Amino acid sequence: MSQKPQTLGELRSTEWAQPPRVRRTVKEELRQNLLCRIQRAETLFPGIRGFDDTVTPQIVNAILSCHHFILLGLRGQAKSRILRQLADFLDAEIPVLAGCEINDNPFAPICRRCRILVEEQGDAAPIAWLPRELRFVEKLATPDVTIADMIGDIDPIRAARAGRDLSDELTIHYGLLPRANRGIFAINELPDLAGKIQVGLFNIMQEGDIQIKGYPVRLPLDVLLVFSANPEDYTARGKIITPLKDRIGSEIRTHYPATVEEAMEITLQEAWLNRDGGNRLEVPGYLREVIEQIAFLAREDKRIDRRSGVSQRLPISCLENVLSSAEQRAVRNRESHVVARIADLYSAIPSITGKLELEYEGELRGAENVARELIRASVGRIFSKYFAEARLQTVVQYFEAGGEMKFAAAAPAAEVAAQCKRVQGLFDHLGRLNVSPRDEAPRVAAAAEFILEGLWAHKRISRNEERGFHAEPRRAAEPETQRQPGPRPPRRQFN
User: Fold this and answer.
1) How far is residue 320's CA from residue 271's CA, in Å, rounded to a whole number?
2) Is 32 exposed, middle or buried (CB count within 10 Å of its CB: 0-12, 13-18, 19+)?
3) Domain housing 287
4) 404 shares a domain with 361
5) Three-class SS of residue 274?
6) Chain segment 106-115, per-residue pLDDT in tens
7) Contact at 8 Å (CB) between 262 and 351?
8) What is the pTM of this model?
9) How many degrees, rounded to 5, is the angle at CA 362 between CA 384 and CA 268?
10) 83-97 mean pLDDT
11) 113 and 93: one domain?
12) Is residue 303 one of the residues assigned to a domain?
């Protein structure tokens, strides 16, 4: 493999000195590389699910149009991850003038230091190679961000050491935006950025010049600006000023997963499930559906603030907590194989309550009570999916005849399975959950407990802390013969 050019003269004899690369902008680079990936039918955003027919085509259009763009969406909709993956569309590496703070193009330097370097050394000017991962600069917008952070400031120490006047361009300490030259500059939570900082951004986007301490500096940066924001933050914490919004080429809306199946794929991809404890841990599919359904129901619940949204991090954290609860039970009971149960879902309530922004009605009810009601409703929804046509009357009759069943959340699977086996007809319905009565005790116990919880969710049996699963006695109807009609009150007369 030939050695990469190390000087400007060596670089002139390569393809980097030939059109179109010699003066290609970063937007043109992204555009050409994206077209090549589309032509090769490659996955554009690995790990991003549910956006193939909605968000991804809009992002592709924005890049092909050479637009600055913004992603608008509620929390937990993969906005930051998408922005970071834009760096994959850049070249593997590009040549820059060695030692340049703003990654100057060797054939068209814009900072004074590099212009002087090329004038003095000519083809002997040293070249460095900048990898794509260093061409992506990200900043979280906060109210305390200053113009000096974003654009730059005069460095008096540098001026004193070099004996230069403060108005000299060589005394500038560049901010984040100039240092992103020939790359991508991403700002998360744009509305939190102060208005005067936003003014500095749109000036760079449109005119390409900046002012530092009152001195105009012409700095035609080559940068793609991308942003993310929560649409409700426009009025809650700040807003995007109109001139900046007008200069953003494309406004792209993100969204939560459209189906439970899509959400399960995302959660399974992101959750930490491959534990190293030595036990064989398993979360049944129906229980994972319940976990996802909690998030879907929470997004529709009037007690929860819809403007804040319910992040996809809720089911991810919940699934991890459920598995940890099952893992803890396995260690305590010295079980080598453990299957997560409904009881583990209630143990994971702390991973749910912290993800909910409650309205006034929800605050009165309490976050934990809201979470418990969401779990019950989710169990009922998934139970109906599997047992809509099941005849479970024999199971219900067991409890109506006085049967009760109570077991601790930490009870061994064999103990739970043995208790559930006493319920007449219960094991006949395990097949709907792809479980056989002859399967291992952990799977049988988890499936049987889910069926009982589903019956309770549909109010066909009762459950409380003292008695466990049971049935409330029905009130006998009073016979008609025992009802003695009382005297009829006299009819009032009106004149």
Assistant:
1) 6
2) middle
3) 260-470
4) yes
5) coil
6) 999 988 899 9
7) no
8) 0.87
9) 50
10) 96
11) yes
12) yes
